[in-house]
Write a structure and sequence with these properties.
Blueprint: H1 3-21, E1 31-34, E2 40-42, E3 47-49, E4 59-66, E5 68-76, E6 81-87, E7 90-96, E8 102-106, E9 110-115, E10 121-127, E11 130-134, E12 143-155, E13 161-172, H2 173-179
Antiparallel strand pairs: 1-5, 2-5, 3-4, 4-7, 5-6, 6-9, 7-8, 9-10, 10-12, 11-12, 12-13
Length: about 180
């Protein structure tokens, strides 16, 4: 069995166990455990970020091909989503909207998004390749990255993003586009 398949098969149960071993939450926020719901299609839309959000230039993401799916794997006792899994192939073109330079990347890894009881993001665990951006004020260098390997991004209550775990490569596509 390929290494990537083994790692992906372990990802959701490991995140669920880590959530169980984490700090105790108030009784109203307790979750109901790991109960995967059926997969459903999910569509990644193209987007453009203004200069300064991730890169010194406007960054455009153009979806070339995709077959992404998502499912809820755990809910809080009140029914709010606690863990949501994403997986499936995704190929995108990253474009410097100012110069027209572009690079094509595979971003079709998998990940698990963990939400707080209020719906805000707590942690995003990625088995790459997958894309993720860091903005001014985040606790990681500015850029939009293709993360390959195991990466965990944490979100403070005020929205500051930080890279809690980084095992594998981190390609800043802003730098790749500047060099193209």
């Amino acid at each position: 069995m390929p290494k990537r398949v083994i790692v992906r098969a372990l990802l959701v149960p490991l995140v669920a166990v880590a959530a169980l071993l984490g700090p105790a939450a108030p009784a109203a926020a307790q979750w109901r455990g790991y109960h995967p719901e059926p997969w459903r299609p999910w569509v990644q839309e193209g987007w453009t970020a203004p200069a300064g959000r991730y890169c010194s230039f406007p960054l455009q993401v153009v979806v070339v091909s995709q077959d992404i799916r998502t499912r809820v794997t755990a809910r809080y006792a009140d029914g709010a989503v606690r863990l949501e899994e994403f997986a499936g192939p995704l190929t995108v073109d990253f474009v410097d909207a100012g110069s027209g330079r572009s690079v094509r990347r595979d971003a079709g890894g998998s990940g698990v998004l963990e939400r707080r009881p209020d719906g805000s993001w707590l942690r995003y665990t990625i088995i790459g390749p997958a894309g993720f951006g860091f903005r001014p004020g985040d606790a990681y260098p500015l850029g939009y990255y293709i993360l390959d390997g195991l990466h965990v991004i944490s979100f403070d209550l005020d929205g500051v993003r930080s890279m809690a775990v980084a095992v594998g490569s981190q390609e800043n596509v802003c730098h790749s586009l500047a060099a193209a």
